[in-house]
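tool=predict chain=A
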Amino acid sequence: MQAGFASIFGILARYRVPIVLLLCVASGSYFLQGYLSFDSLRAHRVILVEFRDANYLLAVLAFILAYTLFVAFSVPGGLILSLSGGFLFATFPGVLYNMVGATLGASAIFLAARWGFGANLAAKLENSEGLVKKIKDGIDANQWSMLFLIRLIPGVPFFLANLVPSFLDVPLRRFVISTFFGIFPGALVFTSIGAGLGDIFARGQTPDLAVVWEPQIILPILGLCLLSALPVLLKILRGKKGI
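tool=predict ok
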C-alpha cells in the first residue's frame, strides 16, 4: 500500500506542471465558457464600448491579457474573442491585438508543454499515427513550411498546432514567428466580421459566419496553404522522404 502511494506521489511530483495546467484548463473552461457568447457580447456591448472610449490603452491591455489567458488555458471561445477584437477596435488595429493575444497564449502552451512533458511525449509522438504523425514528420523535414501550414489549414485544431511543435526540436523564436504570421489570414477575416457587429446587433441579428467559406475568402487562404506546402511537395516530387 505504501509503495503504491509512493508511486502515485512520485508521478504527481514528476508531472506537477502539466497536472496543474490540466486542472486550470478544466476549471477555467467550466467557469468562463458562459461569458464567451454572442448573447453575452450583445448584452454588454454598451458597457464595453464606454470602457474602451474612456480607457483605451487599458482596454487594449486588458483585451490582450484576456485573449492570452483564454488561449493559454484552452478555454473554448477563441472565435468570440476574435470577433470582439474587431467589434471593439475595428479591423485595424483590432487584428493586431487578436494576433498578439493568440500568439502569447500559444507560446505559453508551447513552453508549458515543453517543460512539463518533454522527452516522454516526444517519444510517443515518434510512434503515433494519423494527423499527429503527419504533422510531426512534416515538421521534422521542413520546419518553416509545416509550421505555417498547420496554422493556415482550417482543419488543424489550434491547440494541436501549439502542442506538437513543443515536443519536437522547434526553437521558440521560430514557433512565435510562424504562429503570428500564420494566423493572420484567419484573424483578419474574423476581425473584419467583428468590426461589423455593431450594426448587426442594432438590427437584432446574429453574424453569418458562413461568409468564411465564400470563394473570395477561402480561395486565397487555400492558396497560402499550397504555397506553404510547396517545399514539402517538391521533396516528394524529387523522390526524397516527405510527410
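Confidence is low (pLDDT under 50) at residues 1-19, 25-30. The two ends are 47 Å apart (CA to CA).
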